[in-house]
Design brief:
The chain is of the alpha+beta class and 397 residues long. Helix content is 30%, strand content 17%. It has 12 helices and 15 strands. The chain has helices spanning 17-20, 47-58, 104-117, 127-130, 143-147, 160-168, 200-214, 218-230, 272-275, 281-292, 299-305, 376-394; strands at residues 5-7, 13-15, 31-33, 65-72, 75-82, 98-99, 251-252, 260-261, 278-279, 309-310, 321-324, 329-333, 336-345, 348-354, 360-366. The strands form 4 sheets. A 9-stranded antiparallel beta sheet has the order 3-5-4-15-14-13-12-11-10, sandwiched between helices. A two-stranded antiparallel ribbon has the order 1-2. A hairpin with a 2-residue loop joins strand 4 and strand 5 (75-82). It starts with a strand and ends with a helix.
Length: 397
């Protein structure tokens, strides 16, 4: 999500929900194999990767904790550093719930593209055809342009009225199906298809189009088209501020001050299909291997999905050189290519990526927020470490 720093009435320095992305000594960092205890010294773990993760967490502006999960043909390695809960000292876990932020856009992409496969939707369908109640100025925008952020739709998360509501009540419960009303009086930012501009409005419109053509709630479409086929039982789209237990706690980190827990400070209703999904590192890996690999979509639809615009980055940028597809990005690292998505939300920064064949995946989660406008130096270090893990994933083992 685009980042805009706000200060709530509580004194919390953080990003105001969708506009964001809208000291204590920590226990020693650890590496763990799935389902085991400490794995320091294990032959199947790379001590250099572990040290890089530890150094990231040790930075003054760094996250209290991090978890990186490498999966190769069913074999999973879990690296953790720091803590997933400052209060208890518990380390991050493979089955911790967490806000996946804008990786939610890949889920709305999965719903839309599966409906394209079923010939219920077309990538050339327009807002005017499917959502005629939206502003006439927007009617020529296509589903393809929404999925690739070339629509020109103004971003509702930057609207002053939206921000004022969040400033007054960070846990305000929005009706997600009316979010585009905040910018309904605004024209397009540019002629559709001519430029790339990351906008949270795009994926709200995608979800509304999916609802319009099916007559079903977006939450139910997620269950039918994504969760159930992939066996995702710990992934959900809540509207409130509560997280399922157990969860990876997210923090606002200011050097020189104690980390402040913002895990449940904000309602997710203000980001909905654009950033509200909650998942776990384990299930996020399952999803991205299917969505970025060949398992979920037909070859024809996948070819459209993977038509990339060079130089257009996810938010925040992923490792290596970025290019934008349809609700997915290509990350060209020094060691090879991955497909995936990133996200950031108060308390969380996320990466999920897979090899093109869908057999290997990397998820990388830290429990503080960083983006190009919020702690850019931390983001630069994070991307470097992510690329190190990407190279470990891509090399033959």
């Amino acid at each position: 999500m685009p980042t805009r720093v706000r200060r709530f009435r509580t004194g919390l320095s953080a990003v105001a929900l969708a506009a964001a992305a809208l000291g204590a000594l920590l226990p020693s960092a650890q590496a763990a194999s799935a389902g085991t205890g400490s794995a320091r010294g294990r032959p199947d773990h790379d001590e250099r990767l572990q040290q890089r993760l530890e150094r990231l967490v040790a930075q003054d502006d760094g996250p209290p904790g991090a978890i990186a999960v490498l999966t190769r043909s069913g074999r999973t390695q879990v690296y953790t550093a720091g803590v997933g809960d400052v209060a208890t000292g518990r380390r991050p876990d493979l089955d911790d719930h967490m806000r996946i932020a804008s990786i939610s856009k890949a889920f709305s992409g999965a719903v839309a593209l599966r409906l394209v496969d079923e010939k219920v939707l077309s990538l050339d369908d327009t807002i005017g055809e499917r959502l005629p109640g939206l502003p006439a100025d927007w009617h020529a925008v296509t589903l393809r342009q929404l999925l690739q952020h070339t629509s020109g739709l103004p971003d509702y998360t930057a609207d002053p009225e939206f921000l004022n509501i969040l400033q007054a009540d960070p846990r305000h419960l929005f009706d997600p199906r009316t979010l585009l009303g905040f910018v309904a009086d605004e024209p397009l930012q540019f002629r559709p298809g001519t430029l790339y501009e990351y906008s949270n409005s795009d994926n709200i419109a995608v979800a509304l189009m999916a609802e319009a053509v099916t007559g079903r709630r977006y939450e139910d479409l997620l269950k039918e088209l994504v969760y159930r086929p992939l066996g995702l039982r710990q992934t959900s789209l809540p509207l409130g501020y509560r997280l399922p237990r157990p969860y990876l706690h997210g923090y606002d980190v200011t050097p020189g001050a104690e980390p402040e827990d913002v895990s449940e400070a904000l309602s997710a209703s203000g980001v909905w299909a654009s950033g509200g999904i909650v998942s776990t590192p384990r299930e996020l890996g399952v999803f991205i291997r299917a969505y970025g690999g060949p398992a979920l979509l037909s070859e024809k639809t996948r070819k459209e999905q993977l038509t990339f615009r060079p130089g257009d980055s996810s938010e925040p940028a992923g490792p290596g050189t970025n290019a934008a597809g349809l609700a997915i990005y290509q990350y060209t690292t020094r060691c090879g290519v991955l497909y995936g998505h990133t996200g950031n939300f108060p308390g969380y920064t996320q990466l999920a990526a897979t090899t093109p064949d869908g057999t290997r995946s990397l998820t990388f989660s830290i429990n503080t927020q960083t983006s190009k406008s919020n702690k850019p130096a931390l983001l630069a270090r994070l991307r470097t470490v992510q690329e190190d893990f990407a190279c470990a994933l891509l090399k033959d083992r």
